[in-house]
Amino acid sequence: MRRWQSAWRLIPLMAVLAFVLTGCGLENLTALDPKGPVAEKQLSVIYLSLIVMIGVFAVVMIIYVYVLVRFRKRPGQTGIPKQVEGNHKLEIIWTVIPFILLIVIAIPTVKYTFELDKDYSKDPNALQVKVTGHQFWWEFEYMNEKITTAQDLVIPSGRTIAFHLESADVIHSFWVPTLGGKKDTNPGMTNMHYLKADKPGTYYGKCAELCGESHALMDFKVKAVTPEEFDRWITSMKTPTSAPVSAQAVEGEKIFKDKCLACHAIYNSTSKQVEGGKVGPNLVDYADRSTVAGILFNREPADLKNNLKTWLDDPQAVKPGNLMPNPKNVPGSKMEQSLDLNDQQINALVEYLAGQKQK
Ligand code: HEC
Ligand SMILES: [Cu+2]
Fold first, then answer.
1. Ligand 1, atom nearest to 294 Cα
2. Which domains does the chain have, with CATH numbers?
């Protein structure tokens, strides 16, 4: 009775665990719901292995239970039963069957291992995107279109995307579960990887290699759009943003040039050129992004300004350990560098950045 009671006690724990694990399916971070050919092939190999494993488990369990019942000690039975040693027929059977099962799993696995490693870097039909992992954000450079963005990877559906994976610092791993498996970004080398989205949609991505304090917050979004919409997006990214109108935004632009341009590239409203440093994310057409810093969602129209303010008030509170200097003085912050801005200047910057989009 005791034993049963302690087993019952585990049930609430199991229930909680089930809830926590289903949490893994939130925001489409699942390999079980493929949205492109790469993920589909990979899932088919997962299912094949699973079926073979369940089959082996079932057969072994059936034999086990049968033997347990059939050869149990019966009343009145004494002494040790007859001992049997070595049976060629049985040994051949249990060597050959696993061998065949391994071959069944190996055929698609080996086939897809080579197929999914194909290098599309020279394919004129593939979109060439250089991905750079940074602590703790993602940079996307459209190599032929000469466009750079961050956190939101906009791609055309139905087209192969050739990713050139690089890292600016430590090892990261580029992972969009619904589109396909992960691949590392290694410092000092370029890893090729390709994915394709069948249909327009938003697919969530994550860094899958522990890379520092805010690793778990190193998220990005893949926004697959129709090829026409993609062309429009490319054109809009190349079209200069209109000059700020409100006095506050004009003030913000000045502060930005003074304090932020060294690290962030953006459109210059006078020269109509993209200018600025590459230390931080490129902020061209920033108001069109689906998030601030990859994790604060811009779902409602008011969110962008609120999120920008949250970020600029204390970036360390949003992403601990990130490398942006504190815009304001934050007493006791682990980021020592501060740009010494006041609230009014922060509001001006928010106004300016929130206006960075095509009208
Ligand atoms: C020393 C370089 C540096 C300076 C100066 C700097 N930043 Fe940053 N900034 C960064 C880095 C690095 C990140 C990426 C942080 C992360 O996500 O891990 C960042 C992120 C951001 C983001 C979020 C970007 C995104 O993709 O959503 C915004 C907005 C931003 N900075 C605005 C500013 C503003 C405004 C200023 C000037 C007051 C400024 N930054 C000054 C380095 C800098
Ligand atoms: Cu990372």
1. 27
2. 24-67+88-233 (2.60.40.420), 247-354 (2.60.40.420)
Could you tell me where the DSSP H helices lie in 260-338? 303-313, 315-318
Which one, of 171, 164, 134, 166, lies nearest residue 150 by Cα? 134
Expressed in angstroms and rounded, the spacing between residue 359 Cα and the centre of ligand 1 is 24
Query: What residue owns the CA closest to ligand 1's atom 36?
Result: 260
Distance in Å, CA 1 to ligand 1 centroid: 62
Q: Please indicate whether residue 292, judged by its CB atom, sits closer than 6 Å to ligand 1.
A: yes
Beta carbon of 311 within 6 Å of any ligand 1 atom = yes
Query: What is the reported pLDDT for 3?
Result: 65
Query: What is the rounded distance in angstroms from the CA atom of residue 112 to the CA atom of residue 203?
Result: 23
Q: Are 295 and 138 in contact (CB under 8 A)?
A: no
Nearest residue by C-alpha to atom 27 in ligand 1: 293
280 Cβ below 6 A of ligand 1: yes
First to last CA, the chain: 73
Which residues of the chain carry a pLDDT beneath 70? 1-4, 21-27, 359
Instruction: Output the pLDDT for position 84.
Output: 84
Query: CB-based burial of residue 307 (10 Å sphere; 0-12 exposed, 13-18 middle, 19+ buried)?
Result: buried
Closest residue (by CA) to atom 25 of ligand 1?
Answer: 293
**Residues measured by CB to lie within 5 Å of ligand 2, the ion:** 172, 207, 211, 215, 218
Pairing of strands 219-225, 152-156: parallel
- 0.70 cut: is pTM over it? yes
Which of 114, 151, 184 minimizes the C-alpha distance to 297? 151
Tens digit of pLDDT for each residue in 85-98? 889 999 999 999 99
| Ligand 1 pocket, residue 324 CB under 6 Å | yes
Alpha carbons 314 and 326: distance in angstroms, whole number:
6
Residue 323 Cβ contacting ligand 1 at under 6 Å: yes
- Computed on alpha carbons and rounded to an integer, the radius of gyration of the chain in Å comes to 28
Question: Does any ligand 1 atom lie closer than 6 A to the CB of residue 262?
Answer: yes
pLDDT tens for each residue of 76-88: 888 888 888 889 9
pLDDT of residue 15: 83
* pLDDT value, residue 243: 85
